[in-house]
Amino acid sequence: MSRPIELDRVKIGLVQTTCSDDTPSNLSRTVAAIRRAAARGAQIVCLQELFRSTYFCQTEDADRFDLAEPIPGESTALLGALAAELGIVIVASLFEARAEGLYHNTAVVLDADGSIAGIYRKMHIPDDPLYYEKYYFTPGDTGFRAFDTAFGRIGVLVCWDQWFPEAARLTALHGASILFYPTAIGWHAFEKDEWGEAQRNAWESIQRSHAIANGVFVAAVNRVGIEGGLQFWGNSFACDPFGRVIVRAEEREETLIAECDMGLLREIRRAWPFLRDRRIDAYGGIMERYLDGRRR
Fold it and tell me: Which position among 116, 158, 174, 199 has the lowest Cβ density within 10 Å, counted as fewest Cβ atoms?
């Protein structure tokens, strides 16, 4: 693992692509996009959720477990070698085969020397129409973490995690200055006309709020295209600690480059010292499932 250095600016790359059932093609196209991002100056490149395949969680199909792979394994070896060749950090979302009958939705951080800086197993697992993830994924047991890399200390959360302020807060409390969210989110065809714009706006707004509340940069990397009954809306973006969007993709394949000004992060945290003013003595109720108002 590389020793982190204090940089004034860090360039990040976000790879938003379509996916097919041809997993080798998905991988080769992603590798090409990583190379393009590095050529444009990206020092940390984040891939979308489960980038090697289509989003298979739309049905419960035991054959789909064949897509899973160990960590370390083939993908981490290939991407680690690529990270070392290019001198960059890569954040990759993989379907982890931990043991027979034990699988996770796992993000791997590959450092600039090709080593695995750490893994994060998705903690919040959804179970909704066309998002039947509880069938495939065991909830994560890594806890919320941050990872030292050649380009600073970063945190990774995955898709459904992005709706939970506790996840962002705890990752920031571990010292992350950038939160990455590999994502696969889209519209059901029958509800897009009525709810589509509101859903997408809510998705972006909640993540921008994490940036503000924790004084960090946030980068969300979504897939794009129609797969089965879902239309993935793309719109990957990065925002600063004020929640201001630095870059945003459209509904097409796109690789974004965003520059994160760490001096701005330090300045905002000093001016808006949310971490200083937290009342940690008064938050015991957050450990309860629900507070119904009857407690005194």
Answer: 174
285 class by beta-carbon count within 10 Å (0-12 exposed, 13-18 middle, 19+ buried): exposed
Residues 200/192, Cβ–Cβ less than 8 Å: no
Q: Residue 294 and residue 296: Cα distance in Å, rounded?
A: 6
The pLDDT of 26-42, averaged and rounded, is 98
Domain boundaries, the chain: 9-287
Pairwise CA distance, residues 119 & 5, whole Å: 20
Catalytic residue among 19, 122, 227, 239: 122
Residue-wise pLDDT tens digits, 50-87: 999 999 999 999 999 999 999 999 999 999 999 999 99
**66 φ/ψ sector (left φ>0, alpha ψ -120 to 50, else beta):** alpha
Mark 223-247 as b/e (b = at least 16 C-beta within 10 Å).
bbbebeebbbbbbbbbbbbebeebb
Q: How far apart, in Å, are the Cα atoms of 133 and each of 2, 95, 103, 127?
A: 34, 11, 11, 6
Compute CA distances 143 → 38, 70, 161, whole Å: 30, 20, 12
Side-by-side strand order, sheet with 116-121? 116-121, 102-110, 89-99, 44-47, 9-16, 254-261
Confidence (pTM): 0.95
Point out which residues pair with 179 in neighbouring strands.
Answer: 155, 218
DSSP state of 145: -
Superfamily for 9-287? Answer: Carbon-nitrogen hydrolase (3.60.110.10)
> Among candidates 253, 207, 262, which has minimal Cα distance to 234?
253
Single out the catalytic residue among 46, 49, 96, 204: 49
Region 201-221: mean pLDDT is 98
- Nearest C-alpha neighbor of 222 from the set 210, 207, 241: 207
> Among this protein's residues, is 46 annotated catalytic?
no
Question: Is 260 annotated in the active site?
Answer: no
> Is position 159 annotated as part of the catalytic site?
yes
**Which residue in 57, 159, 239, 260 is the catalytic one?**
159
